[in-house]
């Protein structure tokens, strides 16, 4: 199933307009990719590790929820040569991968909320199909 063209266009537009951003991935909690746009395929070299980010994020969310601090919205991970920002849109995850110079505050406070709105119909459809846990 191909993702809707307007969603791909929207994500591509965001990718081109945010300096230092190289990839946006929308996946389910198990890491199955729903849509991915990339500006530099070679920036993230190890696809196996990248694909496991969603599953690891899901586990981290489950553990963080036990702290009693409320629902986690996003996690930012700083690596030596990149930044990974993951946003919780249960049952979806939105992952941004960029350079160390990526403006994380802009991404989390301005870009992600707009993309949340655009992804809401997909999120709601998948959530409706899941059993209540």
Secondary structure elements and pairings:
Layout: H1 5-17, E1 21-28, E2 33-38, H2 47-65, E3 74-78, E4 83-89, E5 92-98, H3 104-129
Antiparallel strand pairs: 1-2, 1-5, 3-4, 4-5
Helix pairs in contact: 1-3
What does this structure look like?
The protein has 133 residues and is α+β, with helices and mostly antiparallel strands. It contains 3 helices and 5 strands; from the N terminus they run H-E-E-H-E-E-E-H. Strand 4 and strand 5 form a beta hairpin. Helix 1 packs antiparallel against helix 3.
Helix count, DSSP H or I runs of 4 or more residues: 3
Into which percent range does the helicity of residues fall? Answer: 40-55%
Flag low-confidence runs.
none
| Total number of beta strands | 5
Question: Main sheet?
Answer: 5 strands, antiparallel
Radius of gyration: 14 Å
Q: List the helices and strands in order.
A: HEEHEEEH
Strand neighbour order, sheet with most strands: 2-1-5-4-3
Intertermini distance: 27 Å
Shape: globular
Please identify the structural class as seen in this structure: alpha+beta
- Rounded average pLDDT: 83
How large is the share of residues in beta strands?
A: 15-25%
């Amino acid at each position: 199933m191909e993702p809707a063209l307007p969603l791909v266009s929207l994500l591509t537009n965001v990718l081109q307009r945010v300096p230092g951003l190289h990839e946006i991935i929308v996946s389910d909690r198990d890491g199955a990719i729903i849509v991915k746009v990339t500006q530099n395929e070679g920036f993230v070299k190890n696809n196996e590790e990248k694909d496991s980010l969603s599953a690891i994020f899901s586990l981290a969310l489950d553990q963080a929820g036990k702290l009693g601090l409320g629902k986690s919205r996003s996690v930012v991970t700083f690596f030596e040569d990149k930044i990974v920002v993951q946003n919780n849109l249960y049952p979806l995850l939105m992952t941004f991968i960029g350079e160390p110079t990526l403006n994380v505050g802009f991404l989390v406070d301005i870009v992600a909320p707009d993309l949340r709105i655009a992804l809401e119909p997909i999120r709601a459809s998948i959530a409706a199909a899941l059993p209540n846990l």
